[in-house]
Amino acid sequence: MSKVIKVGMADLNICKSPDTITTIGLGSCIGLTFYDPVAKIGGMVHYMLPDSTQMNRNGNIAKYADTGIEALLRKVLMAGASRNRLVAKMAGGAKMFQVSGASNVSNIGERNALAAKAKLRELRIRLIAEDTGLNYGRTVELDCETGDFYVKAIGKPVKII
Q1: What's the CA gap between 47 and 42, in Å, rounded?
Q2: 95-130, pLDDT tens digit by residue?
């Protein structure tokens, strides 16, 4: 019998087939997954901010793109995933609030998505699918049996990427 592993905000975890891993409430946050299609091992990080170096007290590594993505990589590799088979998928990074002027608050979702792409390039892991931007929240789920990444949003059809 398969389980659903939940990842909270500023959290990360791993998953093995036949289980699935999910996170809810992605607004400007990003839900990023790694998946090894041969070992059928995956992992997900739900991070809130692009860069831990911009904060003084950054004790929670899963809260930031730079530290959270690296921690997730270590965790899936320790579980038996092969680095050269890993692929990444992500969703979120929405612009949830209209803010007048060019404030950093208004484009945090876009900055979160760009931070993921930069970190993945640095780690040499391919981003094979994404559903980011726009102005609505998302819930995502990675099926570790198939590698399908489900993106759900209120009033929209489920996307599988």
Answers
A1: 16
A2: 987 765 555 556 999 999 999 999 999 999 999 999
Write down the pTM of the prediction. Answer: 0.94
Q: Is 29 a catalytic residue?
A: yes
String of DSSP letters for 32-95:
EEEEETTTTEEEEEEE-BS-GGG-S----GGGBHHHHHHHHHHHHHHTT--GGG-EEEEEE---
Q: What is the pLDDT of residues 86-101, one digit of tens each?
A: 999 999 999 987 765 5
> Which residue in the list 14, 21, 29, 153 is annotated as catalytic?
29
SS3 content of the chain, % helix, strand, coil (to 5): 25, 35, 40
